[in-house]
Amino acid sequence: MKTAVVGLGYVGLPLSLQFARSGVSVLGLDVDAAKVDALRKGKSYIKHIPSEAVSEVVKAGTFSATSDFSRIREADALIICVPTPLNKNREPDISFIIDTGKSIAPYLRPGSLVVLESTTYPGTTDEDLREVLEAGSGLKAGRDFHLAFSPEREDPGNPDSKVALIPKVVGGYTPACLEKAVALYSRAVKTVVPVSSCRAAEATKLLENTFRSVNIALVNELKTVYSAMGIDVWEVIDAARTKPFGFMPFYPGPGLGGHCIPIDPFYLTWKAREFGQHTRFIELAGEINTAMPAYVVHKVADALNDRQKAIKGSSVLVLGLAYKPNVDDERESPSYVLMEMLQERGAKVAYYDPYVPVIKPTREHAHWAGTRSVAWNKKTITTFDAVLIATNHACVNYEQLADWTECIVDTRNAMAKVGTSPGQVWKA
Ligand SMILES: NC(=O)c1ccc[n+]([C@@H]2O[C@H](COP(=O)([O-])OP(=O)(O)OC[C@H]3O[C@@H](n4cnc5c(N)ncnc54)[C@H](O)[C@@H]3O)[C@@H](O)[C@H]2O)c1
Q: Quick check: 275 pLDDT over 90?
């Protein structure tokens, strides 16, 4: 049995490796020739995936990578893991899914299975993707080929998160489609959780991500309220989390980042309108979370003001460009928004992130492309008027930061365990 995985990014690559390690022959497909080239050489391009994990399965012959979509013919099962962003009007952009559907349809074989993993609104699999697959192949879903949805639950940067051990929700277009998809995932994943339809599986993923977005918004709001009352929200969360039932800690920050939490809930908002429904929790959470960078910049202004300085003309270092600790993924990172807001107010802005040595071109933040992380040494770091901690990478030496910088604005409570002097750290 051969399985093709289309889209070899943060989701598709670890999934491919897990299947390959489980003895399933995997053909990885990506339109990015540089990724295909790296994988063929046994090299990883994702920080938390070691190259040995790739070279091992390449050598064993269970994994190969290609950009040649005609090789889809070889596959009995296809798993699609391509991006699902929002467009500039913050509406779902499922063009990557549609393009993938068009590229694979001509090579689809009767009896094969197609599974979508990209996070999306309910109906994408059995409406949008089904239509392009049927039109391009002349085959009928549920009769000639099988169709299913299974949401990814990748947690990049979490060393305890193993693809094989994370239960996998699966919904099929028909009961036979579900059976096929459950059989496929059971080869590589310990627990498969079948649900009644593709839509139920799509909706499950949206519930999971909306849950995070709403709860993060709640603690972000409490951060601002408690701060005004002179109460430290971090202390409060640490105390609350000692409750052995009915509480789960979420932590405030400078705003949402990454490819999922800031985006996915709005896929549901968009689809809900078709049914005359409003997603008020999602909208409110979005409003609170997107207001966070402005709150943080206010704190930077307060901290500088305390030293008779203005943002205008000050040099500010943003520490951490990745959207969460210990990863090299800076998509949708609030650090970009912080840097832009500070720059608009006249600050000289630089960043430090050992995992993002240089900023790659992006559509949203084009003018930062090519900007390099500053070096981590006393001579460089002491030149800044303020350091704004946006991401708490574990590898950063926060004791050195305390020695080198008088003015630290901390959005992650990274300085909590470091000895600092009164007025040196501003929690934001
Ligand atoms: N990153 C996460 O932690 C995470 C977690 C859960 C779910 N997801 C979801 O999984 C999906 C993929 O996310 P990701 O983080 O892996 O994205 P990614 O950008 O890291 O990877 C996507 C890959 O797809 C490739 N690609 C784009 N169009 C293609 C096409 N037409 N044919 C073949 N390859 C194509 C890109 O070159 C890229 O390598 C998204 O829907 C995302 O919301 C991501």
A: yes
